Amino acid sequence: MLFGVQPFIADMTAMALSKPFDTAAVMRANYERRAKLVTEGLNRSAALKAMMPEGGMFIVVDVSATGLAGQEFAERLLDEKNVAVMPGASFGRQAVNFIRVSLTVDDEQLAIATERMVELAVQLIEHNDVLLRAKR
Predict the structure, then answer these.
(1) Cα separation of 50 and 65, whole Å?
(2) Quick one: 83 exposed, middle or buried, by C-beta within 10 A (0-12, 13-18, 19+)?
(3) What's the pLDDT score for residue 1?
(4) Cα-to-chain-centroid distance, residue 27
């Protein structure tokens, strides 16, 4: 921002916007397929609510039903299930109960990560249910 846009970057941007590229179509199809895979997989759990994106390479997931905020869920997911996601709070207070999942890895890795996210959510819900019954 201090120096402005370099002419060669402006020229390449204009070219990229002036005609379709096969690469963009392939990426769009991959992201859409992966988004459906993750959304359908995560929504099997009552504790996770994944929102199908209208575009882009990320999915936002509400994890509040697990009893954890996004930061704690992300930390537990990394520590216990070896899956890295971005806590929603990184994007502001309104996203504190969310995590962000990237669609930039291959389908197999996303399927495994999705299964692990559901496993953690189920474990958390079961643990919360046990705690609630113990309090009664």
Answers:
(1) 12
(2) buried
(3) 46
(4) 17
